[in-house]
Amino acid sequence: MIKGITLGAFLVFILVFLDYRNFIHLGSARVFREAAFQLLTDPQTVQSLEESLDVKFISMDVYDAIHREIGYIRKKMREKEGEIAEKERELEVYRSEAEPIIKEYDELMVRMNEIFGLDKFCGGCRWKKKLTCDGRVGYIMEKYGDSITKAKIATLSHPQCRTE
Fold first, then answer.
1. Residue 30 pLDDT more than 70?
2. Domain check: are 106 and 134 in the same one?
3. Are 121 and 133 in contact (CB under 8 A)?
């Protein structure tokens, strides 16, 4: 059945095409072609086709403008690829320079924590009845504008903090 429908549609297409090229003259083919053209230029039909096919029909002028814009953007992307590669090389240099500094910073932070006793900071224990040591650190930082390290040292030096 499907083969018959396909064959019939193909035959109608061939007849309409031959009539369009003036090889044969079929009045009904001409009427069919004109009706199809009117149907396909009707805004409601076009909108219905766009919705059912989930596509948007555009004019050739719009298509050409979009195509030119895409070409322009591709050209700009190719131009910027060199700049991106250069920035990536710079980033690698900066990372290699920063690596020993970060390592030294981490070592100094461990030593500072040991010297000031920050490695014993509990954080979760109760400061008086309502507040934790972390809450006290936040309060000091907010009220006095101190750094987190200075606020922890101040909290540890107070007798309310139980360093265990």
1. no
2. no
3. yes
The number of beta carbons lying within 10 Å of the beta carbon of residue 67 is 11
Contacts of 162 (CB under 8 A, 6+ apart): 122, 125
Do 136 and 60 share a structural domain?
Answer: no
Phi, psi (degrees; rounded to nearest 5) at 126: -80, 135
Contact 156, 163 (CB under 8 A): yes
pTM metric for this prediction: 0.41
pLDDT tens-place string over residues 131-140? 888 888 888 8
Question: Looking at residue 64, what is its pLDDT?
Answer: 94
Cα 89 from chain centroid (whole Å): 25
C-alpha to C-alpha distance for 164 and 153, rounded to whole angstroms: 15
> Could you tell me which residues are beta bridge partners of residue 126?
132
